[in-house]
Amino acid sequence: MLPESIREELRAIVGEKNCLDKQEALVAYSYDATPMQQALPDVVVMPKSTAEVQQVMRAAARHHIPIVTRGAGSNLCGGTIPVGGGIVLVLSRMNQIVEIDEQNLTITVQPGVRTVDIHQAVEALGLFYPPDPGSMVISTIGGNIALNSGGLRGLKYGTTKDYVLGLEAVLPNGEVIRTGGKLMKDVAGYDLTKLLVGSEGTLAIITEAILKLIPKPQTQRVMLAMFADMAQAARSVSDIIANRIIPGTLEFLDQGTIRVVEDFKQIGLPTDVAAILLIGQDGEPQTVDRDMERIAAICEKNDAVQIKVATTAEEADEVMTARRSALAALSRMRPTTILEDATVPRAAIAPMVAAIQEITERYGLQICTFGHAGDGNLHPTCMTDARNTEEIERVEHAFEEIFAAAIELGGTITGEHGVGIVKAPYLEWKVGAAGMEIMKGIKHAFDPHNLLNPDKMFAKQSRNRVVVQRA
Amino acid sequence: MLKEALVNKLDYDELSNCMRCGFCQPACPTFRETGYEAASPRGRIALMKAVADGVMEPDKDFVDQMNLCLGCRACEPVCPAGVPYGQLIEQTREAIEEVQEHPWWVKAVRKLAFFHLFPYQKRMYQLGGFLRFYQRSGVQKAVRKLGVLSILPKQMREMEAIMPEASGKGIVDFFGGTVIPAVGERKYRVGMFHGCIMDVLFHETNRNTVRLLSEAGCEVIIAPDQVCCGALHAHSGEREQARHLARKNVAAFHKADVDIIVSNAGGCGAMLQEYDHLLAEDAEWQEKAQWFAARVKDISEVLALLVEPKAWQSLPQRITYQSSCHLRNGMKVTKEPVNLLQAIPGATYVQLREGDRCCGSAGIYNLVQPEMAGSLLDEKMSHVAATQADILVTTNPGCLLQMKAGIHRAGLEGKMEAVHIVDLLARVQQEEKPLSTPE
Ligand SMILES: Cc1cc2nc3c(=O)[nH]c(=O)nc-3n(C[C@H](O)[C@H](O)[C@H](O)COP(=O)(O)OP(=O)(O)OC[C@H]3O[C@@H](n4cnc5c(N)ncnc54)[C@H](O)[C@@H]3O)c2cc1C
Ligand code: SF4
Ligand code: SF4
What are the FAD-binding PCMH-type domain coordinates in residue numbering (chain A) (predicted)? Predict the structure, then answer.
């Protein structure tokens, strides 16, 4: 419990209306999109400016109160769960697009701007901001930056980190730093911009960002290729890239996902195929046409059972429906849906999917896999019921083995969802003991009193499994 | 106690189905207005679940938050997990109503309206007759002149100003019977749901509905024992009374043995279509309720199927469309009204920006939550004004009144009129009478 005097102080900074400690507010900010995680904060604070963030941070530092920064709370790693109570700092009120600079092709935004609003604002000017996480209609750019979010276009265009040119951020002592700028080149000192991207709210609070824009591609086309054998689908992915074609989109659904999607939408997908690739290209019309033809030829050579190239906008929409419905279809199967995230080098997709299948069967679970084949980022998704504690325990063991398998294949425990509390026990598997030490050193340099998002990224003890909690 | 009532009523499986992805948030008007997690569908579901889990006491803030929800159900179609939010909020409101202590006058008004007025169609007509007298006899004019109305809250004054002319007679009286034969070959036997308020304040729309159906080849049966659909009851937490009304309607239309049951009010239609859910625990009525629910269609669906727009008169005006929430999110009817409007010869259809967002009417929401309703309406009217349309079409009486109020409030009177889609279609189908232009 925070003493009344501190609440008083916070109210004075942000105003009565933007400092909430009634039960309703504490419950509403006790969760994010991560299944089975919940913890109540002591107070919810919604600042409107960098200056207010600074003052809140100073007050927190003075009284040693933990702060969890929150955008839209759409993350899947428990990143915004206030496990140690304290302040949840909601940045959704700081949601202004500050400037679109058409001379320099940059956009300057406050952290609470929704990703989709950035897309709309710049596309209206014929410009393009490529990162498109599946959650972009709700997620904020601050959250995207803090988690270095990726999306369907990651393969060709990269992820959030490739578009952040400069940041303004408030340090735990209340100081403001500015990194980078509207510059394409800058090697003055350590690259703090890149360090803050993906720092999961553990180093500083991002209060403004300068993002890089590119011209909007002229056209876009898509196709579906279906394969009787997972290995052939995976080989097609490698062959496409080996042939020096970088598709704008290269997504994949496994057989389990295909069956569930077909059951849900009845769009005429063959349910006996092992995998479907959704492949898209964008750019100059002639280049796109030529790439689509070459991609189709590669898939045919790898014995694709069927190839469906969209020629009209309606057909394109139909083709995209398969990928878009995946989450909806899966989430309707059982009450709890655990959407996980493991990444392997793309040549290892086939063995990774095989490993997931083997683990799923051994534990007697329902796990389907879909994801970004082009960059090796897979989403094994488990349909379960949080109330069944015995099953949930098996789920946790299964995922632990899945992450281990990913590491074994040269991959990582998370490609886009972040570490948070969920993956913290496994981080050392990926970065090693020395890596952990240096990361902890960086955390200490920024945040000596461990106030920003404590217990995230670094588990209290190594490998304590996340335990399901229900009141 | 409220807590027990909620634990009993809430469907825990559905609460657990919410995966907290937040996809529902951009669709929610109260979240957009406040930016506050608790005022979003994900937040409200989390609050319900927190109560069910024993994490939270259902206090006054909880009840206020549930009341701030419009019940527009815009959150449902966008939910990947298919969480039936509409049912959850009704269960919550039923629990709240069970334990709530209203001030005596609210109790009296609720009791009068929900138990002694809406369920009895005859009384609705009597009230209609009284209203008609008030409007016609000069009393209304006198009252307005005297400024007596200034004691009413602003929202109510605005409603009084746009109240359409009431009728003491329903459509059965008008047609002098309950069976209206099809013009030409009979294609369907259609049961007409005339609604309670609809048949008093929008009798012309009801008459036009019957006429259009009959001219489209439907034999129209106005099932005589039908009553109010119960939507206002269900949305206000009186689910038991809603069930009572549902049984009466199911019986009335089952007896009439119709192929289709047609509604011309999205709010009623969505309720009628959910009778099978409403009566799910009633073994005796389950089968008939399913029979009933499967037959319910909106008038625009039936007309889109049957009419031939080629025969319509030209209407050289700009038309825009505000889609009503329960028609869209409850009945899932989106294309048909637009297709019909686009088929009107000579007319220019302009899409209303955010025409799929709630106008703030939401049953009696505009009366009990004037602040939120007012700001939603102002936002709506700014988009409406931008269309520069001559005619603003809706498909539900509540929305129609709200749009009329909005036109009044935005000072667009004389520039634009709000019309029910049925009345507009009747206008273009009318051969003898000259087309009326907006006043
Ligand atoms: C259905 C679904 C699909 C998804 N698809 C994708 C996907 O395709 N790709 C992907 O990468 N992710 C995806 N995600 C995960 C998530 O949506 C993204 O990671 C997103 O970037 C989170 O943004 P947010 O605004 O919700 O951040 P939040 O969840 O609020 O916060 C995320 C983290 O960032 C920190 N943070 C937030 N704002 C700031 C700030 N201003 N300064 C410092 N730290 C801050 C928080 O403390 C937290 O650790 C998906 C999630 C869901 C539910
Ligand atoms: S969209 Fe559905 S599952 Fe997602 S938070 Fe909203 S109600 Fe829950
Ligand atoms: S019914 Fe409407 S107001 Fe209520 S939570 Fe859903 S979208 Fe929001």
Answer: 37-216
Of B19, B26, B43, the CB nearest to A35: B19
Question: Which ligand does the CA of B78 lie closest to?
Answer: 2
Cα separation, A321 vs A301, whole angstroms: 26
> From the candidates A18, A24, A88, which should be mutated to test the interface with B, based on the most B CB atoms within 10 A?
A24
Contact call for B38 and A74, based on CB within 8 A: no
CB A89 within 8 A of CB A79: no
**Interface contact flag, A470 B25, Cβ < 8 Å:** no
Give residue A45's domain range: 4-90
Given the CA of residue A140, which atom of ligand 1 is nearest to it?
25
Provide the domain count of chain A. 3
Residue type for B400, please? L
CA atoms of B67 and B89, how far apart (whole Å): 9
The CATH number of the domain where A169 resides is what? 3.30.465.10
Instruction: Report CA torsion sign: B319, B320, B326, B327.
Output: positive
Q: What is the pLDDT of residues A317-345, one digit of tens each?
A: 888 888 888 888 999 999 999 999 999 99
Strands (DSSP E) contained in B121-217 are 179-180, 188-193
The single residue listed with the structure tokens 């400690």 is: A21
Q: Partners of A179 in the beta sheet?
A: A167
Contacts of A335 in chain B (CB under 8 A): 13, 16-17
Which alpha helices (DSSP H) does B23-84 contain, by range? 29-34, 41-53, 60-68
**End residue of a domain, out of A90, A122, A144:** A90
Distance from CA of B227 to the nearest CA of A (A): 36
Report pLDDT for B146.
67
**Residue where a domain terminates, one of A354, A387, A409:** A409
Q: Exposed, middle or buried: residue A471 (CB in 10 Å: 0-12, 13-18, 19+)?
A: exposed
Question: Rounded to two decimals, what is the model's pTM?
Answer: 0.88
Q: Is the CB of A205 under 6 A from ligand 1?
A: yes
